[in-house]
Amino acid sequence: MKRIWLLFSQTVTVLLAAWFVVTTLQPSWRQPTAASGTVSLTQAKDDGSSGAIPGGSFRHAAQNAAPAVVSISVQQKSRSKARKADPWFRFFDEPEDDTPSGGMGSGVIVSPEGYILTNHHVIEGAEAIEVTLNDGRTALAKVIGTDPETDLALLKIELAQLPVIVLGQMQALQVGDAVLAIGNPFGVGQTVTSGIVSALGRKQLGINTFENFIQTDAAINPGNSGGALVDANGALMGINTAIYSRSGGSLGIGFAVPVSTATQIMSALIKEGKVTRGWIGVEPRPLNAELAESFGIAKDKTTGELPKGVLINGVLQNSPAAKAGIQPGDLILKVAGQGVDDVPDMLSRVAALTPGESAMVLLQRNGKEMQVRVTPGTRPTRR
Fold first, then answer.
1. Strands 368-374 and 359-365
2. How many other β-carbons are positioned within 10 Å of the β-carbon of residue 328?
3. Among 71, 73, 106, 225, the one annotated catalytic
4. Of 244, 275, 306, which residue constitutes the final position of a domain?
5. pTM of the predicted structure, to 2 decimals
6. CA-CA-CA-CA torsion sign (321, 146, 189, 248)
7. Residue 73 catalytic?
8. CA nearest 248: which of 90, 21, 129?
9. How far is it, in rounded angstroms, from Cα 346 to Cα 191?
10. Domain identity same for 190 and 104
11. One pLDDT digit (tens) per residue for the chain, 383 residues
12. How far is CA 198 from CA 120, 193, 222, in A?
């Protein structure tokens, strides 16, 4: 019995010694082997150590979305030189003479009936539009309608068995989520680039009248405009619209119109061929300390901050606002019960009103709040 116990203790001692040597000299031997088909990446931390981060392929997202992304070729009149000087690179053709020129962009098939979402600037001034599918088929497209104020356009082609992209849910998209940009940059052919959502709700960029952009660092270049920004499952999250660049190439700052906005515009264009928005005829300005002092707008006694709202700098004569009694110097606080934090907020709130149907506007005048009832007209169409 004593001999058996001695043998057992020696065996345990040897095993413990072996475990100690492996742990000290070859710790990687203790790492579990990655399952087949998965990839494990390491990333350096600020303290110099490394930690595992999830990684892998986006092939399924690309395979799901890419067939529904098309290349668009247009015959159009040349663009103005002023647009070429604009730092927001939203164009695709180089010639600046008076002869017809060719432009290229991208689009996304969003319904089996052949509807394609793209950018207004892609097909602006087009005399003929040809769509090329990822499977090589081509078709001439008809313009259903455009909305320059969101830089969106809706086309339609007549082909059978069309691949259709899945529409995503904007409320599920968060900063840091992985996204893919799919399009036809520089006319080289369909290309997929990856990145993350850098920011949501970007506005006051001066690109469109109505802005609520998804910002991404996925590479977007001339020719990508009108293409798809999709999530890791291949669902459409936005229509790639613009990049900020000093060179013409991607600097990691790209913008896409959210799918929620795109589908609203699409529905209006299918139904009416145009987008109808409310309008009250005012010149709004963001409120700052200097303007607040000029117009006698006091700070909140509790917080010491200026009230949230938009200052009315001017009112168009005989406009809906003038008829409702709105005056220069009024501070608009709410439109139809919704708060107004800045000028884009106010434009969006007013645009959402139905022309001919009155709505309540809460404003502040001479330090006192008051409500007025405004019957909006139809916002003039921007050409």
1. antiparallel
2. 12
3. 225
4. 275
5. 0.71
6. negative
7. no
8. 90
9. 38
10. yes
11. 566 666 666 676 767 666 665 555 555 454 444 333 333 322 333 333 333 334 568 889 999 999 999 999 998 665 554 344 444 444 434 445 454 556 789 999 999 999 999 999 999 988 899 999 999 999 999 999 999 999 999 999 999 999 999 999 998 899 999 999 999 888 888 899 999 999 998 887 777 778 889 999 998 888 889 999 999 999 999 999 887 765 566 677 889 999 999 999 999 999 988 888 999 999 998 888 888 877 777 777 777 778 888 999 899 999 999 999 999 988 999 999 888 888 888 888 999 898 999 999 999 888 888 999 999 999 887 65
12. 24, 15, 20
Q: Which domain holds residue 258?
A: 58-275
Q: Which of 151, 217, 231, 345 is catalytic?
A: 151
Domain-embedded: residue 122: yes
Residues 6+ apart with CB under 8 A from 245: 87, 89, 251, 253
Q: Which of 215, 247, 275 is the last residue of a domain?
A: 275
Q: Is 121 a catalytic residue?
A: yes
Cα pseudo-dihedral 82, 250, 164, 176, rounded to 10: -130
Q: What is the CATH number of the domain that holds 251?
A: 2.40.10.120
47 is catalytic: no
Catalytic member of 73, 120, 121, 231: 121
Question: CB-based burial of residue 375 (10 Å sphere; 0-12 exposed, 13-18 middle, 19+ buried)?
Answer: middle
Element (H, E) at 325: none
